Structure formats: C-alpha cells, structure tokens
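To: structure subgroup
Subject: Chain for Friday's discussion

All,

I'm putting the inputs and outputs inline so they're searchable in the archive.
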Amino acid sequence: MSLIQRLHHASLLSSDLNASRAFYEGLLELRPSDSRPDMGFEGVWYDIGEQQIHLLVQPNPEAGLVRHEHGGRDRHIALCVNDFEALIARLEKAGIRYTLSRSGRRALFCRDPDDNALELIGP
C-alpha cells in the first residue's frame, strides 16, 4: 500500500476574491464550504466530494507572466463535470477561452481570473 492515500485539497491563489467567486460559484456552480475556519486572511473553500479547492487571497506573484495558451501544458487541476456540452455553452456565453484536450478525451482546459489552469473532463 502506498503511503499517500488520496488527494485532500488543492490550493489556488486569488488576487480578487469577488472575481474568483463569480467564476467558481457562478460559472462552475461550486458552493462554498462552511468548514473553513477564520484563518486571519480572506479565502473560500469548496467541497468536491471528499476533496476540496481552497482559494487563498493574496496578490498574484505571477501577474503578467506569459502562460502557455493550452492549459494542459501548464500546472493545473482536473475536475470531472456531468454535462460537457452545458459546460462549453457556459464558457462561451461568459467569453471564457478554452482549448480542447489534445488526447482525444472529452476534456477542455480553461483559466480562472488569476490564470490558474483547470482541466474539465466530461463523462
């Protein structure tokens, strides 16, 4: 048995919590977790099954950095979605750029307001 059992959470930086919340809650329909204690700084946690995404508010240390256009060539987190076509429609309506996975899977890559890359995988 491996020492590591599962992924607990992934933390992403947010320089503008309102913009990040609009993306994660409005566009991706995640709901904030009530399990986040007062940590002395702004942020929000999202439960995704037994795992979480933590948004940590701080200035973006990579602002202005030129990122690869295809998020699959950058560090990213991957999330499973239940309706791939609805996701694409939401991204297009919101004007969020994305690229399709080059593996041939039903997956795409996009970026949040702080240029964190996300892979979104359909059923």
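Points worth raising on Friday:
Residues 28 and 87 are 8 Å apart (CA to CA).
The domain at 9-60+67-121 is CATH 3.10.180.10 (2,3-Dihydroxybiphenyl 1,2-Dioxygenase; domain 1).

D.
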